Amino acid sequence: TEVAAAMIKTDERLLIKPSERVPVDGVIIKGQSQIDEALISGESMPVFKSIADKVTGGSVNLDGVLEISATSVGAESTLAKIIRLVEQAQGAKAPVQALVDKVSAIFVPIVLLIALITLVSWGLATGNWQQSILNAVAVLVIACPCALGLATPAAIMAGTGTAARFGILVKDARALEQATAINMVVFDKTGTLTVGKPELVSIHTLSGDEDDLLQLAASLQQYSEHPLAKAVLNKAHEHNLQANAVTDFQVVAGRGVKAHHQNARLLFGSGFWMQELGLTLPQIEIDVPGASLSWLVSQQNEESNFLGLFCFTDQLKPHAIAAIKQLKQQGIKVAMLTGDSQSSADYTAKLLALDDYQAQVLPESKAQYISNSQQAGYL
């Protein structure tokens, strides 16, 4: 039964079908899927979620059927809190605005007093009270600090509103004033400096020909919404290859996917995953700089055979190089932190002329890097 999002209550169970938007914050109690959280986090790469993981209202369920239990609804949802933060930032007073208010509190009575003196003195001196009123009004018009009191809040509202349209959440109006003193910017790589839409650029075959491996990979990836899966399927479409049926498809979080095809189990994923399974990676010379690598493996009768190595690249965003260059010209230090491989980070950093970067960085390590930079005097 479909119900309006406003009618959902805490602890109620909801069924979220593929391509549907998650209406409220909740926790998954059944199923697994790739979740697009770009609306909330700005990250273009989908995030894999399974049982006991939290999902955020406003995100999109891409490929699996999920059953969730609502934890936060209405005004308590994450999306509602973000909206409130923007509204609070627009209504907050920056330090310069507080100073303007103090000046206005003193300046306004003084202006009124000067206008009154002008009115009385001009009227008594000339006897022309009509002209004296005009002169007093002129003093009020010229000297009244209305512009001081109105310009700052108007600028804050315009600034926070424009930032929100570009996906930038300003939590405190003071940040707008402090932005002029920023001397360091730290970027993520995937989806920030790069497009976030990888392309399959080469296949190194170890068994069979390239089209056979591409068709197997497409068959395995047809039920996935991961960007690498889309890259495989796009390449298969270019080669006019049709995906075959597979069974027992399963996503292995952070590692890859697996399924049964004919009488074998196929695995497609990272070298780290293959090593976790106790497999020794074949030595292959890669001629694609900065590539992300995925292995295709066939398992049958307790034997594992490496079929091929798939190389993906993610293009830089069109204005990334120019943006980094402009920041450097302004004397701002630029750093890049990424969870991607060292080779991929090296290649991207070379294209962007970055000297300060780190690869295979966990989220908590990124937070520590920011904290250390702030302690070193960077803003």
TrEMBL record:
Gene Ontology molecular function, alphabetical: ATP binding; ATP hydrolysis activity; copper ion binding; P-type divalent copper transporter activity
GO biological process: copper ion homeostasis
Residue ranges of domain P-type ATPase A in the record: 2-87
Keyword set includes Transmembrane: yes
Main location: membrane
Subcellular compartments: Endomembrane system
Keywords: ATP-binding, Membrane, Metal-binding, Nucleotide-binding, Translocase, Transmembrane, Transmembrane helix
Bilayer topology term: Multi-pass membrane protein
InterPro entries from the UniProt entry: ATPase_P-typ_cyto_dom_N, ATPase_P-typ_P_site, ATPase_P-typ_TM_dom_sf, ATPase_P-typ_transduc_dom_A_sf, ATPase_P-type_domA, HAD-like_sf, HAD_sf, P-typ_ATPase_IB
Record carries keyword Cell membrane: no
GO cellular component: endomembrane system; membrane
Transmembrane segments: 103-124, 136-156
PANTHER family named among the record's database cross-references: ATP7, ISOFORM B (PTHR43520), P-TYPE CU(+) TRANSPORTER (PTHR43520:SF8)
Family per similarity comment: Belongs to the cation transport ATPase (P-type) (TC 3.A.3) family. Type IB subfamily.
Protein known as: P-type ATPase A domain-containing protein
Origin species: marine sediment metagenome
